[in-house]
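Researcher: First entry.
Model:
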Amino acid sequence: MRVEILYPELCNLFGDTGNVKYLKLCLPDAEFIYTSLCDTPAFVSGDADMVYMGACTESGQEKIIKQLTPYKAKIEEQINKNTIFLFTGNSMEVLFKYIETDEGEKISGLGIFDFYAKRQMMKRINCVSLCRFQEMDIVGFKTQFTMTYGDNSDCFFASVEHGIGINNDSKLEGIRKNNFFGTNLVGPLLVMNPYFTEYIMTLLGVEKPQVAYRKEALTAYNKRLNEMRTKNMKDH
C-alpha cells in the first residue's frame, strides 16, 4: 500500500500535517511517499493507492497549479480508477476552473471540477462545522479566505448540520467524485473523525480497520460532537 503526500513543504497549514502523522500510525505497514514541488508525482505512473494534499497559502496554490497542470489527464484517470484522493482546506481549489482574486483576476486552475473559488483576503471565514457523511457525523473547523461557487448537489462530500457549505448560501460541504474527497474542513480532519478515517482505511483494503489510539480518539470525538450539538441547540 502506497500513500502519496503532495507538496508537504507548502501544504502544511492549520495542523493538517496531523492527518499524515495519524495515517502513519493507522497504517504502519504502508509506504509513505513525500512528493516535493520539483518531483514527478507517484500517481502519474499509478504507483499510489491514496493521494493526500493539505491546505496551503494563496501563493502556494499558484505554484501547485503550475506543477500539476501537465498531469491533469493523469489526475482525472486516477479519479476515474477510484484511487483515493483526500484534499483538505483550500487544496481542492487548484482543481477548479479558476480562482478569482479580490481584484477580479482569474487564476486558471486545472479545470477538473466545474467550480470556481472567490477570494476575500480582507475577510477570513471561520466557523465550527458539524456535517453528515453517509451514516456518520463529521466534525471540524473552517478557516479560509475563499468561498466556492457552482452546483455540488450531485457531488457534495457532506451535508451541513451546523456551519456553512461551499458558500454562505449552501448547506452542502465539499466535493466528492468516486473516491476523491475535497473538503474545506481542517482540524486535522482524520484525527478528529476516527470513523471517517476507518472508512478511508476500508477503501484502502484494510480488513476490520481500527484507528490508532481508538479508545482515546472516540472519546475525544464523542465529547466534541456532544459539545457541538449542545451549542447548536442553544443557538436555536
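Researcher: Second entry.
Model:
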Amino acid sequence: MKLWSGRFEKATDTLVDDFHSSISFDQRLYEQDITGSIAHATMLGEQNIIPKEDAEKIIEGLKTILADAKAGKIAWQTEAEDIHMNVETLLIERIGEAGKRLHTGRSRNDQVALDTRMYARAACAEARDLLKSLIEVLLEIAGKNLHTIMPGYTHLQKAQPITLAHHLMAYVQMFLRDRGRFSHAFDAANVMPLGSGALAGTTYPLNRPRVAELLDFDAISENSLDGVSDRDFLLEYLSAASIAMMHLSRFCEELILWNTNEFRFIEMDDGFATGSSIMPQKKNPDVAELIRGKTGRVYGDLMALLTVMKGIPLAYNKDMQEDKESFFDARDTLVKCLTVFTAMLRTVSFRPEVMERGAAGGFTNATDCADYLVRKGVPFRDAHRVVGELVAHCIAENKALLDLSLDDMKKFHPAFDTDVFESLSLIACVEKRDIPGAPAPNRVRQAIDKAREALAEEK
C-alpha cells in the first residue's frame, strides 16, 4: 500500500506504476535524501514538533539505511515510486510507528528540491576540481613551450606567428571562466528550500535556518512557491556544462586537425587512439571525436530542461520529474569527458619543428613587414598596400618574404633597409608583441604565473 493511498479507492494501474516511478534514476540521490531527512528529524526533535525520543529513533534508523545503501544491500522498489518514499517505507519497516513522524512539516516537493540542490552543489564542486586538473596540465605544457613557434590562424588560414604556449593559454582562460560559471551555479544551488512544503509552507514552527546550518547551506529560500518550483540552479549547471563542453569540443577539433598528415603538429598517443577494421595504416583520434560528439548531447540536456520548464505554472508539477535525467546525464557526460580529455592531453606529443616550419609558410610575418614600414614613417594604409603587393610578387615567384633581397624589396618601397630581415624573423615577430595578453614569451610566462596564483588562492 502506498503511503499516500488514503484518498484512493483502487490501486494505480501497473502501467502507471512503471510510468510514474522515478526510482530507476533518482536512487542516486539516496545519500542526499537520507542526510536531509536526518537534518529535518533533528530539527523536529529540537523544536518539540515530534517527541525527541522519536527523533532519535528516526535518526538512528536513517543512519542504518544509509550504511546499508552504501554497502549495496538495499534493493530499491518501483512500487514505492521514488527515493523519498523508498527511504520512508524502509524506515517505518525498521523502527515502526516513530518512522511515520519523519514527514511531519515536509512535502516531497520541497524534499526533492533539497536533495537535488545538495547533489547539484557536489556536481559543481566536482566540475571545478576536474577543470583545475585540466588547467594544471595546460600550464605545465605551456611552461615548456614558451619559445615553440607556431602559426596562428584566422579563418583557418595562417595569419601571424605565435607560440604553442600562447595558444594553450587561450584555453586556460576559457577553462578558468568555466570554473567561475560553476562557482555561480554552486551559489545558485546553495539555497535551502525545505520548509516550503508542497507550495505554501507549513503551520508547524519549523526552524529553517537550523536545517540550513546542519546541511551547510548559505541561505534559505524566500518564497515557498519558488522554493518548490525553482530549477534555475539546474539550468545554470547545464549552461555551465554546455559552455565547458563547447570549449572541450573546440580544443578537440584543433587536436584532430593537428593530428592529420596535412598538419602533423602533434602525434596522438596509442593509448588514446584506435585503428581501422579495414585500413591497417589508420590511427584515429576517436577520443577527441567522441568528446566533440558528446557536446551535442549536453546541449540537448540543457534544451530539454529549458523546454520542460517553459510552460509550467506555479508551483510544482509532475513535469519537473524530468529535470533529473537531463541533469544526471549532463553531469555524467561532463565528468567523463573532462577526465579522459585531461588524461589524453598529458600524452600528446607536440612537434615543435613542424610547427615552426608551418609558421614560416603562409606569410605570417606580413603584418610585421607592414609595421616595419610604419616605424619608418610610412602611413599604415600605404604600408598595407605595399606589403600586399610584395606578397603577390612572392606568390608569383614561389618565394617567402625572407627569400627576397633588399633590392627586391626596395623596388616596392624605398623605406626598406637592411634591418628589415631581423624584423621579419619569426622569433622577432613573436618577441616584439610585448604587451599584456600578447604572445611574447615573458608575457606568456606572466600569464602562466597569474593563472597558477589564481588556482592556489582558491579554497
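Model: Note on the second entry: The chain has a mean pLDDT of 94.
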